Amino acid sequence: MTMPLRCLARTAAAGLVAVAALTAAGHTAEAEAADTLGSAAAGQDRYFGAAVAANHLGEADYAATLDREFTSATPENEMKWDATEPSRGSFTFAAADRVVDHAQSRGMDVRGHTLVWHSQLPSWVGTLGAADLRTAMNGHINGLMGHYKGEIHSWDVVNEAFQDGGSGARRSSPFQDRLGDGFIEEAFRTARAADPAAKLCYNDYNTDGVNAKSNAVYAMVKDFRSRGVPIDCVGFQSHFNSASPVPADYRQNLQRFADLGVDVQITELDIEGSGSAQAADYTKVVDACLAVDRCTGITVWGVTDKYSWRSGGTPLLFDGDYRKKPAYDAVLTALGGSGDPGDPGDPTVSCTAAYTRTADWSSGYNGQVTITAGDAPISSWTATVTVPSPQSVSSLWNGTPTWTGNVMTVRPSWNGTLAAGASTSFGFTVAKNGSGAAPTVGGCTAS
Ligand code: 9MR
Questions:
Q1: How would residue 6 be classed by pLDDT, with cut points 50, 70 and 90?
Q2: Residue 443 pLDDT grade (very low, low, confident, very high; cuts 50, 70, 90)
Q3: How much distance in Å is there from the Cα of 309 to the middle of ligand 1?
Q4: 151 flagged as catalytic
Q5: Whose CA is closest to 333, among 395, 277, 286, 393?
């Protein structure tokens, strides 16, 4: 039952991809600047992907942002061993299918993550002896790759098999401990037979620059290439923060792997931080990928900061309200695209006005209105103040008033430009003429 359903999905998706390609070609002919991450990356012959969680697809903004911006989807957890084969030989694909079906129906490609990994491994795997474990590993690869045969552009066949630190040694895992170094080669050979159309990747972290760990992976890939072990790509996870910044030799490292004859992919990119510093780091990563011909695509590890595995570090391109961050603009620009003001997802240009009475005496008072920009920078603002009759305004500072009856419309004098969230204020002196009533501030508009 399962295979025919997945084959139908694939055929439908292929049709959609063809339409998308035609549309993209039309855009190029009109020389329009690409205004999404996916279309800008396509202009550089690359994909731009995101890790996707099945349980968020029902959230309209999540799905809309994913569908608008990305051309590749990696199920964040749904294809892992604990999710797909919780007990031996019994496969559950429902959650992974939801991600794959969603992606395909929107013309996105799918990255497979991951077949053989020491983590998110159901406990039964760790109880097996060597012979049984070998059979189980190959059975797991065949089960997953068979289910999605022809539908996955790249599979992370083996994930994180090397230790951190200076030794370049393999990491202890049931596979390493019972099958020895050869388990990686065996996994790749099994994977090639299971789905010859899929690119087969080795994926790891802290291998983004030249170091002992990446040297060990490099030696393995070189050995595989020289002996004809089927490997097509190396994934560089690229989880960055202040303790693990974008390495200065990132491009050189990607290039030395590419020179072995494999593609390189940035597979789980996120960079903790905010504002222009975060944006500059994202630019470094995109520039490095674009400088390496065989860097075929970039995947960010999530759509929105609020669902990131490092959500406290706000490491992604969209904030928790799906607004584009400066890092988004930097990536789009680095990919050769450009956004339009008023794009969906752009922060709205807005301001608020708040009134306080700052001084009061028998015949008069001073009022102050504080103007605060919303989530986007503004270049001008307008606030209205209704002064109750019979009061009159005798002076006003830090603003330029025009009058209609007793409604005063105030625009900036020198203080129109405000950064996102920044404030300015104007003040005025009122003659009470017998009434101490408060003025009414009628709101703020920004441009
Ligand atoms: O983002 C994933 C998170 O939701 C899971 O809880 C976590 C469990 O191990 O795995 C995260 O994804 C990891 C990926 O599969 C492999 N590289 C490191 C990623 C971040 O931990």
A1: low
A2: confident
A3: 7
A4: no
A5: 286
